[in-house]
Amino acid sequence: MRPAQNILTRISFALLVTSTLVGALLCTTPAQAQSLVDKLQSATGKVANEKHTLRYKFNANENLYYEVVNQSAVETTVDGNSQKLKSRSKSLKKWEFKSVEVDGSTTFTHAVDFVDMWSETDGRAPVHYDSRSGGEVPPEYGKLAATIGEPISQVRATTSGKVLDRKDTIKQLDRGTGGLLIPLPEEPVSIGAEWATPSSVTVTLKDSRQKAIKTRVRYRLEKVESGVATISVVTQVLSPVSDARVKSQLLQKLSKGEMKFDMDAGRMISKTLDWDETVVGFNGPASSMSFLARMTERLVPSAEVASLQNPGDQK
Fold first, then answer.
1. Quick check: 259 and 299 in contact, CB under 8 A?
2. For 189, which DSSP code?
3. 63 with 95: CB under 8 angstroms?
4. Structural domains in the chain, sorted by start
5. 164 phi/psi in degrees, rounded to 5
6. For the chain, percent helix, then strand, then coil, each to nearest 5?
7. Strand 287-299 with 163-168, pairing
8. What pLDDT band is residue 193 in, cutting at 50, 70 and 90?
9. pLDDT tens track for 89-112
10. Which end of the chain has fewer beta carbons closer than 10 Å to its terminal beta carbon, N or C?
11. Residue 186's Cα: distance from chain center in Å?
12. Rounded to an integer, what distance in angstroms lies between the CA atom of residue 108 and that of residue 100?
């Protein structure tokens, strides 16, 4: 037998053996195949229907620090004249827990440890303020500078994030983000479960009357991986709104994004919210307003806090 024929013979034999083995592996009865399908469906069904308990775990005498980064751009056009306002800020918020009740509820204070802010408006010089530098405070940030390091809120809340009492020392910006704590469902929930908190926004009508627009913040459990729950969030307007003037006052309230919640530690570890809205005709047919923004928030490890508070000390 010639060499070429020998090679072909060996290849044919190998293919025969392989096909025989594959046939043996695949040769299952219909009942066995259906049993495997049933087992797979049962396993995936159990995962999909598994209930997850979402609860805060507050610890007495503990401080939590979150780095918050805001970026925004507002563009307003009226009769062909446009103005742009851009801003960004980075801050470190501090939650200080004094004690925890038997039922797990707690009272904590909320303070801003530092803030680094920048803003620019068309036709004006940029304004910058970093509370860590000790420099002169721009007039635009005077009231804010006076609150740095001081408690601006005291909150009493349950382990589900329900706020029982809240006292604010200053009025705080509300962008429809659902408050300081993510409200969590009272009962265990499966992937895909939704819950919501009602709210309202007061707007000014053309005749100067005020009107409450009903809204809600809708939350949805998207997935759970390695003990971390991903929760989507979106602010929804429930009242019918057709007036562009009213819509322009809702722009900064309509956020959407997601949050990461550490189920074992019982705390939020990150949050990302986006705003991207445009309204036409809020002040005449040749007018428009657009609002584009992003806010990110992350839990800062204790070993990293000092480097954020005193960046000049880093080598």
1. no
2. B
3. yes
4. 62-313 (2.30.230)
5. -85, -30
6. 20, 45, 30
7. unpaired
8. very high
9. 999 999 999 889 999 999 999 999
10. C
11. 20
12. 9
> Of how many residues is the chain composed?
315
Residue 255 tokens, joined: 């956020």
Measured CA to CA, the distance from residue 310 to residue 114 in angstroms comes to: 10
Closest CA to 94 of 299, 313, 310: 299
Task: Calculate the average pLDDT of the chain.
Answer: 86
Within 8 A by CB and 6+ apart from 33, the residues are none
pLDDT above 60 (res 252): yes
- Token readout for 275 is 């705003």
Q: What is the per-residue pLDDT across 281-315, written as a single tens digit (0 to 9) for each? A: 999 999 999 999 999 999 999 999 999 998 876 54
Strands (E), the chain: 62-78, 81-100, 106-121, 127-130, 151-157, 163-168, 194-204, 210-225, 228-237, 256-262, 267-280, 287-299
Reported as a pLDDT band with limits 50, 70 and 90, residue 30 is low
Residue in 115, 102, 110 with CA at minimum distance from that of residue 63: 110
- Contact by Cβ (8 Å): 186, 158: no
Three-class DSSP category at 243: coil
| Nearest Cα to Cα of residue 91 among 73, 109, 65 | 65
CB contact set of 159 (below 8 Å; sequence gap of 6+) = 55, 56, 57, 58, 103, 104, 105, 266
According to DSSP, residue 249 is labeled: T
In DSSP notation, 119-136 reads EEETTS--EEEETTT--P
* Spatial contact of 39 and 279, defined as CB atoms under 8 Å apart: no
pTM here is 0.81
User: What is the separation of C-alpha 146 from the centre of its chain, rounded to a whole number of angstroms?
Assistant: 28
> How far lies 12's CA from each of 2, 9, 15, 266, in Å?
15, 5, 5, 62
Ramachandran quadrant class, 167 (left: phi over 0; alpha: psi -120 to 50; beta: rest): beta
